[in-house]
């Protein structure tokens, strides 16, 4: 299945990651060959990928925020839980995994992928249904970080069991959990952080699978942060605890 990835960072990271087939690069007529556009064109030339100059109207039909470039690519290459655990083993690190329980919004998904890639998460696990997939919108929202992440789309319950078999502590993130503190012992070892959906939070089945459910400490007037912000903060707390 082919699709179009749009925006400069997203297209550039698709080329840099070299995980997808890239069939053609579309560049807007009149776009100056500098910055990311120059890097994209040079990378395409090295890989002998077809480059076509097109009108901005043509790119507008792909997405209004194309930034003068798009790439026709193959489907996203999903991984599995074994690949994620192998990634940790190859780096001689304890597993650090992000688990998303029925997240629906592409922007939230992309934000979490970008944070996960930045803090060294070994892989992300999403369910088979009731979730956003790795769409072009997600790739764009993640600024291309999705292309460097191992993402497994699988049965969540079975995936959590596999992580537990690998002695990974499963931490659910929910406003009704115990307070998560900086340097918490729960964050220091092998960690699987579970972030729930934007509206309902963690599903009951997923909650029961967690070893512990934790919440971020809040001092303001609002009750909670949105899924992407809360998940990103928790990922950084885990990153700091693991590297302390």
Structural features, described:
With 244 residues, the chain is of the alpha/beta class. Helix 6 links the parallel strand 6 (123-126) and strand 7 (151-153). Helix 1 (8-17) packs parallel to helix 2 (35-46) and helix 5 (106-118) runs parallel beside helix 9. It contains 9 helices and 10 strands. Strands 7-6-5-9-8-10 form a 6-stranded parallel sheet. It folds into 2 domains: 3-73, 60s Ribosomal Protein L30, Chain: A; 81-242, SPOUT methyltransferase, trefoil knot domain (Alpha/beta knot). Helix content is 37%, strand content 22%.
Write the layout of secondary structure elements.
Elements: E1 3-6, H1 8-17, E2 22-28, H2 35-46, E3 50-54, H3 56-62, E4 69-73, H4 81-90, E5 96-100, H5 106-118, E6 123-126, H6 136-141, E7 151-153, H7 156-165, E8 169-179, E9 191-195, H8 204-209, E10 212-215, H9 227-242
Parallel strand pairs: 2-3, 5-6, 5-9, 6-7, 8-9, 8-10
Antiparallel strand pairs: 1-4, 2-4
Helix pairs in contact: 1-2, 5-9
Number of helices: 9
Determine Rg (CA atoms, Å). Answer: 19 Å
Question: Which spans have pLDDT < 50 for at least 5 consecutive residues?
Answer: none
Instruction: Assign an overall shape.
Output: elongated
> What is the number of domains?
2
Judging by the overall fold, what is the CATH architecture of the largest domain?
3-Layer(aba) Sandwich
Strand order within the widest beta sheet = 7-6-5-9-8-10
* Total strands: 10
Report the CATH topology name of the largest domain.
Answer: Alpha/beta knot
Q: Helix and strand succession?
A: EHEHEHEHEHEHEHEEHEH
| CATH class placement of the largest domain | Alpha Beta
């Amino acid at each position: 299945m082919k699709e179009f990835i749009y925006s400069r960072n997203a297209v550039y990271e698709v080329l840099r990651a070299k995980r997808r087939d890239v069939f053609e690069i579309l560049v807007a007529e009149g776009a100056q060959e500098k910055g990311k556009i120059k890097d994209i064109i040079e990378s395409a030339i090295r890989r002998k990928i077809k480059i076509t100059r097109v009108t901005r109207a043509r790119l507008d039909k792909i997405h209004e925020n194309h930034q003068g470039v798009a790439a026709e690519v193959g489907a996203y290459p999903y991984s599995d839980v074994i690949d994620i655990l192998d990634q940790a083993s190859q780096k001689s690190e304890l597993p650090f995994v992000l688990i998303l329980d029925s997240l629906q919004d592409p922007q939230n998904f992309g934000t979490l992928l970008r944070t996960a890639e930045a803090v060294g998460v070994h892989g992300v696990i999403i369910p088979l249904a009731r979730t956003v997939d790795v769409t072009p919108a997600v790739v764009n929202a993640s600024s291309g970080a999705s292309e460097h992440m191992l993402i497994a789309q699988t049965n969540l319950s079975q995936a959590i069991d596999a992580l537990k078999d690998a002695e990974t502590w499963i931490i659910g993130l929910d406003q009704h959990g115990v307070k998560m503190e900086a340097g918490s012992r729960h964050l220091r070892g092998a960690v699987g952080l579970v972030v729930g959906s934007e509206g309902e939070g963690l599903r009951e089945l997923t909650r029961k699978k967690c070893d512990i459910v934790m919440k971020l400490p809040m001092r303001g007037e609002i009750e909670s942060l949105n899924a992407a912000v809360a998940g990103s903060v928790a990922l950084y707390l885990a990153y700091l605890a693991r590297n302390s």
